[in-house]
Structures are given as C-alpha cells and as structure tokens.
Amino acid sequence: MRRFPSLLWMGLGVAGLLIFTPASGFADSGSELYTANCAKCHGADGHADTPVGKAMKVPPLATPKWAADDDTDALIAAFHANPKHKAVASKVTDDDLRAIAVHVRALAAAK
Length: 111
Ligand code: HEC
Fold this sequence. Notes:
111 residues, Cytochrome Bc1 Complex, Chain D, domain 2, elongated
C-alpha cells in the first residue's frame, strides 16, 4: 500500500494537466472560476440576485464600475479588502482573480 500515495499524486498531476490544457481558454476558465467561487453571492449574471446575495446585501458586479478595461487591479483590491471574502479568498489566486475579472467585465458589458 506504500505505492498508493505516489499513484494519487500522479492522478492529481494528470487531472491538473487536463484542467490546464490550452483548450480551456482564458475567458472560459474565468467564467468557471466565477461560477465556482463568486456566483453564490454575486449571482451567475453578476446582479447578486441570489438568496445569499439578498441576505448579505451583496453589491452587483455587473455595473459600469467594473466594465472598464483597466479595473482588474481595482477589482482584485476590492475583493481582498473585504473581510466577507475571507473564506473564498483562500481558494482563489490572483491569477484566478484576473481571469474572473475578465468574466466580470463581460457580465458588466452585457447589461
Ligand atoms: C459569501 C458571499 C460572497 C462571495 C462568495 C463573494 N463575495 Fe464579493 N462581496 C460580498 C459582499 C457581502 C460584498 C459587499 C461587502 C461590503 O461592502 O460590506 C462583496 C463585495 C465585492 C466587491 C466590491 C463591490 C463594489 O461595488 O464595491 C467585489 C469587487 C467583489 N465582491 C468581488 C468578488 C469576487 C471576484 C468573488 C469571487 C472570487 C466574490 N466577490 C465572492 C460577498 C461575497
């Protein structure tokens, strides 16, 4: 059974390769990351129209404020500045957040 852990790591490595294949484009991974980490509170469409969003008075992200091209850093800073993001912040990297910001801009532009 000593071989089991290394097999597990190999499996994880293969899964990692599959996740990071070029086929899953930048924008796509942004939307997936957003859905997995932000949609529960901020809503799938960025309008925070969810039970949790309403209960916590979550602000919408699909607004002109986040539509501008150079707002990636501002969005990441606003995310980190907020203690309500403590749980989710441990699950996303700044690279993830940059991809998410691209998706948020798409949501903001859709309105
Ligand atoms: C547990 C619910 C929750 C989750 C999950 C969540 N947020 Fe938030 N978010 C909030 C709340 C609540 C606020 C407003 C807090 C306040 O101002 O008091 C907020 C505010 C923000 C703001 C500032 C909005 C503004 O107009 O100032 C940004 C940007 C933001 N969130 C981005 C994100 C991103 C990106 C994710 C996913 C990686 C995310 N949030 C996940 C609850 C959440």
